[in-house]
Amino acid sequence: MIVVETPLRRLAEGRLFATVEYMGGVPRTLTIGTESICYLSRVHKRARHIRISFYYDGRIAVTRPPGVSITRAEHFLRDNYDLMRGKMNTRVRAGTTILPQVRLKEYPHIKQQACSLVQVRLRHFNQIYGFVYNRVVIKKHKTLWGSCSVKRNLNFNYNIIFLPQELADYIIVHELCHLKEHNHSSRFWALVAHTIPNWQERRKQLRLYRHKKIG
Ligand SMILES: [Zn+2]
Question: Which pLDDT value is given to residue 12?
Fold first, then answer.
């Protein structure tokens, strides 16, 4: 079975405490052919058309402008379901996961969530390493997942919150180990391997994640 890790899954398992606004929508079911699908119905005041979004956990959201009825939105979903699901599957097969786009107004909340997640896991791994670090900073890095500064500050990309736990852990341990080894030497990787023996696999997986600009 392929279990796709997403914010919704984390939310369902109590590992992410998102606000209702953040996940957004009223759950509804709709029968399409022989399938009964569950989707999130959303009304967005700035939406100009009905929009269907497919997420990697199989979650579907239908967003409509305020003037459009739910009946019309469901007609639209029925008409476009097969086509859109087909597109979704191609994207999943390609192996790339595009992380959800964070709205500017959601950012402070996401940043805070990311910070507490990182702090908890840092403390956990540092029970083993026992390194000394200064501050933990969550940043809007464009491409970096994390960095370790000369002042012994550990910086992490806010998107870490959307990653599967094992990949987030890999990033956290990676930066933690840079406190001791400021390089990617074999000594550095040996330190990482101490708690993440399959770091190579996780590093490879991490390359399949893309994040979007806040907007
Ligand atoms: Zn590094």
Answer: 53
**Average confidence (pLDDT) over 108-136:** 93
Q: Does one domain contain both 108 and 204?
A: yes
Looking at the structure, tell me whether residues 179 and 116 fall in a common domain: yes
Residue 185 CA to ligand 1 center (angstroms) comes to: 10
β-pair type (60-64, 97-98)? unpaired
Query: How many angstroms separate the alpha carbon of residue 176 from the centre of ligand 1?
Result: 9
Claim to verify: residue 172 and residue 84 sit in the same structural domain: no
170 Cα: distance to centroid of ligand 1 (angstroms): 11
Provide the 3-class DSSP secondary structure of residue 138.
Answer: strand
Burial (CB count <10 Å: 0-12, 13-18, 19+), residue 163:
buried
β-bridge mates for residue 165, sequence order: none
Rg of the chain over Cα atoms, rounded to whole angstroms, equals 20
* pTM score above 0.70: no
> Domains in the chain: how many in total?
2
State pLDDT tens for residues 44-98: 888 888 888 766 545 678 889 999 999 999 999 888 877 766 655 444 444 566 6
* C-alpha span between 110 and 22 (Å, rounded): 10
Distance 148 CA to ligand 1 centre (A): 8
Domain end position, chosen among 61, 95, 129? 95
pLDDT greater at residue 124 or residue 57:
124
Domain of residue 158: give its range: 104-210
